[in-house]
């Protein structure tokens, strides 16, 4: 099965038109990808796996695809790493994570068993499994699964029990796993082990308490800048102001960790990213102690892939995380700057109506605009534009909102195309950074205090950028072209 997938992928890769894929974002090789998996450092290189169905551009029996990089920006495609080919994972190798241990690369993932039994009833089980390898080839343990639902306390679901995030602390292995309580919705359970084969249930570190969704998928749990952070992707969330939107969302819970009782003491719950296409983030720690996050840049609710594409799904740019003033900040990894090409800079621009400054255009760029937060009606950046198409980022200083709108980006479906966030000025200014790589739009507000990630599949010829205002606006503009080819 793995060999079939590898062959299919090798052949398929040759058929993707050159230049079609973004340049510095990990994309599906062929077929479909979703969540990032196994984001880890192994032998000094960054490995990124992903949920993968090579045979179609829609979700199907989950394999693990695989890429690696030395710097988070230039990625090398590796052969498919896992296929759903055993009794315990025959219906899917679901999401998971990885660590380096004893010179080996260890993957921990969820095996899915979903079968109609002889008596006609369906048996659905999600269990946790281990595969060990050398950075290219991985072997599943004979003793898999290493954690089954029988380890869970009464009331925790055995059917929604998935997405282990493994880490090593001292001599011990730890894993947080997403689950669901029948009564209170999403929960994250903690397991510990001394050898990664025999695991013990330790406790429930956090729960939805019926407030933040039904199943808590894809947890990550780490300490950074003096705080403990839990990242979660809850299903079936309900909208709350501009903070949370309906459906599959991503949230972080920040607080202190009571290690003895395995409890996260909650201080803040907020959205990780406010865009239209962001889910299932996962992090790694670099050798120099940076916490880097990557997420699936697509959403379960909006399928936008153009019918002519033979690949669907891509990852965000890896982002460096920090906690500052009780908030989670994120910015593209600094390695991106090594790929900056032409710089265009305007220190003091006055916009009253419309302006298209010389040298400001393209579809692969890192653009930062700093605008005064004064008494005008609106400031906007209109990009990926030609006479027919555009996407737009609007800042309304009176309402203190930033809105991304892709209505006229060439969509042919009546799906979600617009989302707003509340923003705060910083010393009388708002900083908007837009990172584009052909179809990807990653917006960072005020040095990463908020992020908004969305996709647009506008034809690549639409590459004009224009600044618009209702009232007089003063701003500064810096733009770099970026390419990793
Ligand atoms: C999240 C998710 C995970 C699961 C995987 C299946 O997007 O639903 O919970 O492991 O996708 O592909």
UniProtKB/TrEMBL annotation:
SUPFAM superfamilies in the cross-refs: Arabinanase/levansucrase/invertase (SSF75005), Concanavalin A-like lectins/glucanases (SSF49899)
Domain Glycosyl hydrolase family 32 C-terminal stretches: 335-474
Assigned GO CC terms: cytoplasm
Membrane-spanning intervals of the chain: none
Predominant location category: cytoplasm
Known pathway: Glycan biosynthesis; sucrose metabolism
GO biological process, one term: sucrose metabolic process
InterPro entries from the UniProt entry: ConA-like_dom_sf (IPR013320), GH32_Enzymes (IPR051214), Glyco_hydro_32 (IPR001362), Glyco_hydro_32_C (IPR013189), Glyco_hydro_32_N (IPR013148), Glyco_hydro_beta-prop_sf (IPR023296), Suc6P_hydrolase (IPR006232)
Protein name per UniProt: Sucrose-6-phosphate hydrolase
UniProt organism field: Anaerocolumna xylanovorans DSM 12503
């Amino acid at each position: 099965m793995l060999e079939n997938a590898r062959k299919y992928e090798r052949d398929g890769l040759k058929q993707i038109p050159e230049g079609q894929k973004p340049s510095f974002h990990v994309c599906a090789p062929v077929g479909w990808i979703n969540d990032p998996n196994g984001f880890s450092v192994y032998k000094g290189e960054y490995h990124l796996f992903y949920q993968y169905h090579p045979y179609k551009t829609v979700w199907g029996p989950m394999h693990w695809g695989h890429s690696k990089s030395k710097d988070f920006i230039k990625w090398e495609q590796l052969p498919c790493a896992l296929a759903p080919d055993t009794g315990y994972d025959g219906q899917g190798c679901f999401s998971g994570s990885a660590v380096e241990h004893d010179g080996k690369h260890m993957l921990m993932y969820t095996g899915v068993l979903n079968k109609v039994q002889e008596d006609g009833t369906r048996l659905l089980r999600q269990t946790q499994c281990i595969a060990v390898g050398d950075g290219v080839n991985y072997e599943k343990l004979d003793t898999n699964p290493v954690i089954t639902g029988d380890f869970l306390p009464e009331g925790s679901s055995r059917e929604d029990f998935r997405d282990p995030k493994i880490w090593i602390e001292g001599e011990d292995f730890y894993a947080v796993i997403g689950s669901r309580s029948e009564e209170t919705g999403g929960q994250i359970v903690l397991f510990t082990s001394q050898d990664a084969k025999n695991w013990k249930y330790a406790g429930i570190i956090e729960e939805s308490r019926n407030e933040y969704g039904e199943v808590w998928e894809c947890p990550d749990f780490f300490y950074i800048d003096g705080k403990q952070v839990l990242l979660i992707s809850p299903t079936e969330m309900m909208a709350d102001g501009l903070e949370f939107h309906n459906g599959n969302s991503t949230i972080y819970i920040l607080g202190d960790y009571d290690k003895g009782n395995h409890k996260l003491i909650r201080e803040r719950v907020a959205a990780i990213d406010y865009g239209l296409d962001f889910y299932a983030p996962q992090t790694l720690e670099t050798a120099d102690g940076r916490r880097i996050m990557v997420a699936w840049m697509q959403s379960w609710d909006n399928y936008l892939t153009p019918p002519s594409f033979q690949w669907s799904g891509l990852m965000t740019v890896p982002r460096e995380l920090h906690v500052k003033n009780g908030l989670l900040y994120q910015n593209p990894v600094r390695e991106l700057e090594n790929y900056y090409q032409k710089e265009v800079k305007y220190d003091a621009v006055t916009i009253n109506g419309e302006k298209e400054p010389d040298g400001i255009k393209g579809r692969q760029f890192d653009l930062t605009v700093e605008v005064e937060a004064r008494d005008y009606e609106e400031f906007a950046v209109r990009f990926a534009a030609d006479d027919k198409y555009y996407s737009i980022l609007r800042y309304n200083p009176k309402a203190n909102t930033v809105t991304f709108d892709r209505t006229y980006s060439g969509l042919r479906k009546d799906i979600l195309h617009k989302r707003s966030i509340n923003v705060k000025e910083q010393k009388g200014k708002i900083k908007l950074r837009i990172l584009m790589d052909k179809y990807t739009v990653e917006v960072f507000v005020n040095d990463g205090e908020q992020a908004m990630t969305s996709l647009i599949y506008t034809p690549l010829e639409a590459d004009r950028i224009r600044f618009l205002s209702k009232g007089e606006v003063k701003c500064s503009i810096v733009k770099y072209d970026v390419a990793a080819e």
